[in-house]
Amino acid sequence: MRLVLRVVGLAFVLIWVAHTIVVSGAAMIAIDYGRVLKSSPIKTEEAFGKPYQQATVRLAQTLPRSDSVLVVINQAEIDGQYAGYWMHFWLYPRQVHMTSHLDEVARSTADLVVYVQDNGRPALDPSPRYAPSGSTTYPDGTVVHLYHRADR
Asked: What is the rounded CA–CA span in Å between residue 12 and residue 102?
């Protein structure tokens, strides 16, 4: 019985490693791990990635820790490593909900809405519930818009 459990456990780990390499192999190979390991996670995050990804750390430092956040972002980013994992990591302990659908803002009860407007995405109509708090434009054309609840 122990041997069977060991074999099943080892098979699971090997399959998971193969899955990880297939899903994020190119990104894993492109990283200079020596430099990554010598620095803090915040410095690593600021050094790599798209500009809005670098801004997430600074954004997390300015948002109230008790607020809930709706992040409206491209579906490819949600499915990929960044939004699906790192935005939750940096925005913790806030309750974070991710979507790629602009119409979810009208139904949202979140305290804050962060809209990452990639090139080609339409402008967001924040509904009467949300008021603009500011926006930042990055060199690649991405604009990060921040909205807060109008009743606060």
From this structure: 38
Least Cα distance to 83 among 134, 106, 49, 108 occurs for 49
Structural fold of domain 40-149? D-Maltodextrin-Binding Protein; domain 2 (3.40.190)
Q: Which amino acid is at 87?
A: M
| pLDDT computed for residue 13 by the predictor | 93
Strands 112-117 and 143-149: antiparallel
* Tokens found for residue 85: 């994992």
Q: Locate the domains of the chain by residue range.
A: 2-30, 40-149
Helix, strand, coil content of the chain in percent (nearest 5): 50, 20, 35
Pairing assessment for the beta strands 112-117 and 96-99 based on DSSP bridges: unpaired
Is residue 27 pLDDT above 90, yes or no?
Answer: no
Of 2 and 31, which is predicted with more confidence? 2
Taking only the tens place, the pLDDT of each residue in 94-135 is 899 888 888 888 888 899 998 888 877 888 877 788 888 888
At 138, phi and psi to the nearest 5? -110, 160
